[in-house]
Write a structure and sequence with these properties.
With about 240 residues, this protein is of the alpha+beta class. The protein is about 20% helix and about 20% strand.
């Protein structure tokens, strides 16, 4: 038969383990918290001071927005879409709607906005009870504008590097421009209707054999923001984006 293993003698903890050690630990932490403030803040009663370049919830200055959709295309998480809303002054218009639950607060939408309509706000308390509450329509997304909320970047194209940085074509700000293929154009004027910056005007360039006027789009590149909506909506693919040389 296997020998019985010897059991060690059971040690009963003394009174100091139950009472004095916990009391000492509590007293030590109390003194430490009183003399030296802890590294944390008592949120929500206390809040950290945010730096000037803090990027919180994106906001919208709806009066500046032209609905070009650049913010929607540049968003890395795809949380922005253009929706149709009704405005008392302008009637129906397309403006950005954002899913804050998917937003990574990168601020790209504000960086690439040609009209500084998209801004970054210092708001970071964005908790909600449902996912639907995290979808901000254009009117919920709009925020009071203050200097410093806008974010601007300057794009430098390879063509500009050849000329030297800073020698940009007036009115272009480093963006590509739409180019027309006259042979494909049918003069439908869809590009002029869809342009959010009103940079396209249809002008008459001749008369057809049947006596009808032939019209072609003329671009005002000082107004053009390079949103590519004219290219995307052209029914004959007569427009392409070309790098400024």
């Amino acid at each position: 038969m296997a020998e019985k293993t010897k059991k060690g003698k059971k040690r009963t903890p003394k009174l100091s383990c139950y009472v004095f050690r916990p009391m000492y630990a509590t007293l030590k932490e109390t003194v430490r918290a009183t003399v030296h403030r802890p590294d944390t803040v008592l949120y929500p009663w206390e809040k950290l001071e945010l730096p000037d370049n803090y990027r919180g919830r994106p906001g919208l200055v709806i009066e500046r927005c032209i609905g070009c959709g650049i913010c929607m295309r540049i968003c890395p998480t795809g949380c922005i879409e253009l929706v149709e809303v009704e405005d008392e002054q302008h009637g129906k218009m397309r403006r950005p709607q954002m899913n804050i639950g998917r937003c990574m607060m990168c601020g790209y939408c504000a960086e690439y906005c040609p009209k500084n309509a998209m801004i970054v706000t210092p708001e970071y308390e964005l908790a909600a009870y449902t996912r639907q509450d995290l979808i901000y329509d254009p009117f919920e997304l709009q925020h009071e504008y203050k200097p410093g909320y806008e974010v601007s970047i300057v794009e430098v194209l390879p063509s500009e590097l050849k000329r030297g940085v800073g020698e940009k074509e007036p009115g272009r700000e480093g963006k590509d421009r739409p180019e027309l293929s006259d042979a494909k154009c049918i003069g439908c004027a869809r590009c002029a209707k869809i342009c959010p910056a009103f940079a396209v005007e249809m002008i008459q360039v001749g008369v057809s054999d049947k006596g009808k006027p032939i019209k072609r789009p003329k671009f005002d590149f000082s107004k053009c923001v390079g949103c590519e909506q004219c290219v995307e909506n052209c029914p004959r693919d007569a427009l392409t984006m070309k790098e400024v040389l």
